[in-house]
Amino acid sequence: MIIPSIDIKGGRAVQLRGGNYPALDAGDPEELAARYSRVGEIAVVDLDAALGTGDNSGLVLRLVRRYRCRVGGGLRTKETVLRYLDAGARAVMLGTMAQPAFLAELPRERLIAAVDEKGGEVVIEGWTKGTGRKIEEKMAELSPYVSGFLVTFTDQEGSLKGIPMDRASSLIASASGARVTFAGGAGTAAEIGELDRAGADVQAGTALVLRHLGLADALAACLVSDRPDGLWPTMVCDEGGKALGLVWSDLESLRAAIETGKGAYRSRRRGLWVKGETSGDSQDLVRVEADCDRDALRFTVRQNGRGFCHLGRRTCFDDGSGIERLERTLLSRMKEAPAGSYTRKLFDDPSLLGSKLREEADELNRAKGPEEASAEAADVIYFSLTKAVAEGSSLAMIEAELDRRSLRVSRRGGAAKSAYVQSSEETTWTGEH
Predict the structure, then answer these.
(1) I need a labelling partner for 131 at 20 to 30 A (CA). Which of 42, 283, 327, 384 fits?
(2) 163 and 21: one domain?
(3) What contacts 93, CB < 8 A, 6 or more positions away?
(4) The domain that contains 176 carries what CATH number?
(5) Do 251 and 4 touch, CB atoms closer than 8 A?
(6) Which domain holds residue 177?
């Protein structure tokens, strides 16, 4: 698959081109990330940190917390690596510090060794220092410690001349099963598809910035279809992963969706179909993903209006359920609550809501058995989500925070605050309610 790349220098996205040309200004990194993230994981590299000329960590951390990112550039201490991993980086790309002793202290599944080749040898420290070693040697040394390799052909960086396919095939075989991502000269969607079928990814920057390569075309080059019309079945899901309905996609609709950030599909009767153009029930595209066999797509969207179904329901199967449906009810109560609505009362009286949160949490703490625990947990979820919605949060934001926390490497001690410490004889908290 394609891994769009954002290299940051002086707070701007740039693209280096083999060291022989001025850096190409690519614009605002956050604007690029919003678009690139529609096809999945993106690579973010702090060039200033890599070259020792500055630091863009604040900007990089903002991107990491918002999008699915792998991060590289100037990661020379364990503390720096952990800061990005704990913030939610899917992986870190390590160059100079990709050494067994350093890697052994970190989670293998989150590590990518960045191996840059120039003039046939591995180079380090921002391509400025040769090592006299071949990539194959580094792969053999590091494969027990990393889950992937980023191989950059620096002589071709930004040239759009294409990845040397024979060399790429040899390196895939040398990677001992670790996933290889190639960078440096990526030029066509066809080579991205070929490398995907070989079990490798392509990291591209310059080709995307210059619009020489389209995100949709790069994704589509990896897909297959056994249908006479070549369409790809597309499952549309909300941000929580719940299925809204089944539709179809082709290259035209894929381009429309990724370029506009809207839910766009292929109707077998009407042609290109942008959800919500007539009904008002539009969709904001979060990302598009291919399944493991590359013959189906999943669109993750932010559904607006009544829902996805043409009958005005949340999904093509029902009107939704569970916590997601509760959130919609809470939002409707904020806008227009029926007379005597308890939820409206909670929104209008923060002290009442605070008291109920503490009360229900205490009752859940004292619950016995699955039925009572379920009932009390439902109460806690109701009041917690009411508080979150009142403060402008959302279920999607809460789930994103949980996902980020699952990626933490550093673990907190977990001790309770003194006001909430409970002895074995007590049945309520000692803190003030």
Answers:
(1) 42
(2) yes
(3) 43, 45, 70, 71, 72, 73, 75, 112, 113, 114, 150
(4) 3.20.20.70
(5) no
(6) 2-220
Longest CA span, the chain: 78
Residue 415: CATH number of its domain? 1.10.287.1080
For residue 432, being part of any structural domain is answered with no
Domain count, the chain: 3
Residue 50 corresponds to which tokens in the numbers above?
């890599």
Residue pair 1/216 in contact (Cβ under 8 Å)? The answer is no
329-370 tens-digit pLDDT = 999 888 887 777 899 899 999 999 999 999 999 999 999 999
DSSP conformational letter for 262: B
- Average of per-residue pLDDT values in the chain: 90
Rounded to two decimals, the pTM is: 0.89
- Residues with Cβ within 8 Å of 188's Cβ and at least 6 positions away in sequence, in order, are 162, 213
Same domain, 286 and 205: no
221-238 average pLDDT score:
97
For residue 199, CA distances in Å to 178, 194, 203, 299 come to 10, 9, 14, 23
Instruction: Report pLDDT digits (tens) over 230-276.
Output: 999 999 999 999 999 999 999 999 999 999 999 999 998 889 999 99
Q: What is the pLDDT of residue 221?
A: 97
Average pLDDT over every residue of 217-225: 97
| 312 within domain boundaries | no
Rounded Cα distance, 50 and 149, in Å: 18
